Amino acid sequence: MINLSFSELIQHFINGLTLGSIYALIALGYTMVYGILKFINFAHGEILMFGTYIGLLIYDRLRGGALPGSQTLLFFFLAIVAASLFSATLGVTVERIAYRPLRRAPRLAPLLSAIGTSIVLMNTAALIFGTKSKKFEYPFDNTALNLWGIAITPHQIMILIVCVGLMVFLKLFIDNTRLGKAMRATSLDQDVAALMGINVNSIISLTFAIGSALAGIAGVLIALEYKVYPTMGTMAGLKAFIAAVVGGIGNISGAMVGGILLGLLETFGVVILGIPQGLKDTIAFSVLIIILLVKPSGILGKAVREKV
Amino acid sequence: MISFIQLLTVYIGIYAILSLSLNLIVGYTGMLSLCHAAFFAIGSYATAILMLKIGMGFWLSTLCAGVISAVLGALIGLPTLRLKGDYLAIATLGFGEIVKNVILNWDSLTNGPMGINGVPMPKFFGFSLNPLVKWQYIILVWVFVAITYFILRRIIHSRLGRALAAIREDEIAAFAMGIDTFKYKVISFAIGAFFAGVAGSLWTVFNQSVTPMTYDFMLSMMILCMVVLGGLGNHFAALVGAAIIQVAGEFPRLLGFSSVIPAQFKQIIFGLILVFMMIFKPEGILGKEKAKPPKGVPAVREGGVQ
Lengths: 308, 306
Hints:
Chain A is mainly alpha-helical. Chain A has helices spanning 6-37, 44-63, 70-99, 108-129, 154-176, 178-188, 190-195, 200-223, 232-247, 252-271, 280-294, and strands at 145-147, 150-152. Chain A is 71% helix and 2% strand. Chain A has a two-stranded antiparallel sheet. Helices cover 69% and strands 3% of the residues of chain B. Chain B contains twelve helices and four strands. Chain B has a two-stranded antiparallel sheet with strand order 1-4. Chain B has a two-stranded antiparallel ribbon with strand order 2-3. In chain B, strand 2 (123-124) and strand 3 (127-128) form a beta hairpin. At the A-B interface, helix 4, helix 9 and helix 11 of A face helix 4, helix 10 and helix 12 of B.
């Protein structure tokens, strides 16, 4: 054990929280799709990566050589919008081509189709943009602010505001609007939902659009700190997926809880337990295996009894 | 060119062992496992370490590699095989990543990201096989393919094999018939891991080195694709699947276009094959369509990977 002062503890807590809210944002896409189609969209991470590339492209084109300022902040905002729109379109297209024909197929078929799609997207990106990682310049001055002895970067503040805002917005949307109600009905029972006059196909497309748009936004947000490269979506996607399972897959609040929990565990695992940085990814996978053994339905998920 | 075809033949053989062994787990027992690359890695590293650090011979080290793989497979299986379907797939996926991370970070044993080089050539009655003379390896690898094929075939037609088929078709019914489903699932997993470990051993002595990045998630996927492309639950189909994926992957090089066509192109083709196979022929090239129940008999719930 390492002795930590209180302010250091808060410092790590904030780092974990930022990381976790990114995981949560990506995890929402997985969990929404699983809730409705009962299948793991393995191409989610690649959709994130493609959106990030488009965001970077637009941002670099607009920015030229401008120094960080209010103007670049506006360009960055436009880049986020572009990334989310592109990701949403890509997500809907992928669903239409690769998943919709397999909706009634045995479970393995859409899973493999998703894996195929992710391979195609990853390598297409490598062909178009090259395999070298690209840097996303900060649109603002990213020197850490010192609040009562705790260093917080403007980037972290932005991540927290955007993620929390989007999650609250999504939760309100699902719980209170007509479309949200239709999405909930579709996830309960597609056939009955269709009988009630819900257009199941458009609801599924909407689900993919929302989940992919959130992934695109998350991609641009992480690209500021990490870089942009064709395989960036794989690890981010896997971690987010673990977050979704930990929280209870198919459950929207669960994805948020799971994401933040995973971010905190990863940060504190390195700091407190002294797990080497190289084995950081192992924490997430160990958490996954433990939660699957103890409570496979996740923290907020309901256990499904197997019927004969 | 001829040398390249020989190289391809060796690779097809090694991948055939992998796809045959995964077929036992996925096709015959109905458990979706996404960590076959991990057992391949364990076998590879076990051989490299045993041959270099202990000075063990090739034959003994191959056997040890298989056994180590099988033991680890059983150890992993004990907790994870209580899970079913998607959850099992995710748990095995997580395990595969853990193995890769441990290999990357256990510097004193695995030499970390550098991998291990200079693995000695296998000796055969005092005659040592040279990787530059590929036909020797073709014979060696395909003898192993034949042995694997034969053993797995015998397993499928034994008491064990019938238990596995019962588990695949309906686990609850199998349990009700008195089959210790959990025990048989662990055994099936361990046997699959054993042959993957042997394949890893062959891979190591052929390349005379091991590098950790070979054994990533994509490799597990590729092996799974070979099994699915050929047709689940069919040994011959697993062989065919391995050959098709390998040849398709190396096609540009085979035709001499490798300078024109970038490396990503083959992966794109490979991904597209997967998507279109699933849409148009999900039972695989050699798979049979599900037999329709006779008239008047209601259709039963489908078995297989669920």
